[in-house]
Q: What sequence folds into this?
């Protein structure tokens, strides 16, 4: 699939990441320090870097800055994986050019979904923002707001939301959602989809009404009455 460099000084966590990424089909390289991570990244030019902020020789923010300043790696996707959970660290990481920010501890499944979402941004025609009524989805910053207020979603909920709204006004069967969001075969109980849609609607509040149930089939995202289907789409520069 993709080449991934893991820059992480905790040996146990590094081994877990290497195992799960390799099992998911990625080519994986690892480095225990910032300097080694910079060298490996510049030599192998991966599609993605998983970067810890607290490294023994330099802060991960410095590694991120150097990668973004180097013409050879400036477009490499970077996901921060760190124990730091303060908003200031998250904001700074995005300002320095990180594509996503994952706080420890995290599930391997969630991280793989985040990686999949970030790598998809490299595809031509990727839409960075989807705005429908009062709902705004920022796929780069992995943020969702309703009427200006941020809504906290898990990686799986975020992927479900994006899948529905990037196919607005088109019915998504439960089987298709299981395949596209969960990566599961259709012999898995569709109640999984119903449970997550219910939870997603609750979190979205008034914007939850934009997700319609199509009885006996699945779900459809729709704009509120009087609003355009998608009134703001910005595409990444190619």
A:
């Amino acid at each position: 699939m993709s080449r991934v460099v893991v820059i992480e000084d905790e040996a146990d966590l590094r081994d877990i990441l290497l195992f799960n990424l390799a099992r998911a089909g990625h080519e994986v390289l690892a480095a225990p320090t910032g300097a080694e991570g910079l060298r490996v990244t510049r030599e192998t030019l991966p599609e993605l870097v998983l970067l810890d902020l607290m490294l023994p020789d330099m802060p991960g923010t410095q590694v991120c800055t150097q990668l973004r300043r180097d013409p050879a790696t400036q477009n490499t996707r970077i996901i921060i994986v760190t124990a730091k959970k303060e908003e200031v660290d998250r904001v700074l990481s995005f300002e320095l050019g990180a594509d996503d920010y994952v706080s420890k501890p995290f599930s391997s499944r969630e991280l793989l979904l985040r990686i999949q979402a970030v790598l998809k941004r490299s595809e031509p025609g990727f839409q960075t923002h989807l705005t429908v009524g009062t709902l705004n989805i920022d796929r780069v910053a992995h943020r969702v707001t309703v009427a200006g207020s941020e809504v906290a979603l898990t990686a799986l909920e975020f992927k479900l939301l994006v899948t529905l709204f990037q196919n607005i006004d088109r019915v998504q069967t439960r089987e298709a959602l299981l395949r596209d969001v969960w990566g599961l075969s259709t012999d898995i109980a569709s109640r999984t989809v119903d449970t997550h849609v219910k939870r997603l609607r609750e979190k979205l509040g008034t914007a939850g009404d934009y997700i319609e149930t199509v009885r006996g089939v699945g779900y459809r995202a729709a704009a509120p009455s009087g609003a355009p289907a998608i009134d703001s789409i910005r595409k990444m520069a190619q």
In short: The longest helix spans residues 191-204.
